[in-house]
Design a protein that fits this description.
The chain is an alpha+beta fold. The protein has nine helices and six strands; from the N terminus they run ααββαββααβαβααα. The strands form three sheets. The chain has a two-stranded antiparallel ribbon. Helix 3 packs across helix 4. The mean pLDDT is 84.
């Protein structure tokens, strides 16, 4: 038995490694985000897989590479990007945007709480105010002086 123990351990390790190399199984009617994420796209002068673009975009906007919804459900970056591109009503409900500034929350009439992620649907009623505030930030002292 001692003679075969290293071979058994090696075989179990090989099976574990081989199982991780296999792509995840999807049902025939499910969308294969894994294969869709391998599509090459040109971003910033470089060709990257779409999955990399999705992860980097979500990381910039959300601060993480994955969304966690209420109830513990997780949404991958690829699923988020796909919903954003092709299923906007669903994507608008994802709490993606980080707001921690009390003044910004006060602009919308919200109180500071433990919650820091908000969806586009929550901001949609305030788009005009957001645009006005963005325009105000563009005004420099020179424009004030010269009118």
């Amino acid at each position: 038995m001692k003679r075969f123990l290293p071979w058994i351990i090696l075989a179990v390790a090989a099976v574990c490694i081989a199982a991780n190399w296999l792509p995840p199984q999807t049902a025939k009617d499910d969308f294969d985000f894994n294969r869709f994420g391998k599509i090459p796209v040109l971003v910033g002068g470089r060709i990257k897989p779409l999955d990399t673009v999705a992860r980097n975009s979500l990381l910039i906007i959300h601060g993480k590479q994955e969304l966690r919804l209420e109830g513990g459900k997780r949404v991958s970056a690829m699923q988020w990007l796909t919903d954003t591109l092709f299923n906007a009503p669903v994507a608008d409900q994802y709490p993606v945007f980080v707001v921690q500034n009390a003044d910004v929350l006060g602009l919308f009439g919200w109180q500071q709480s433990d919650r820091k992620y908000f969806s586009f649907a929550e901001f949609s009623a305030f788009l005009k105010q957001i645009d006005d505030q963005a325009g105000q930030s563009d005004i420099t002292d020179f424009r004030y002086i010269n009118g």
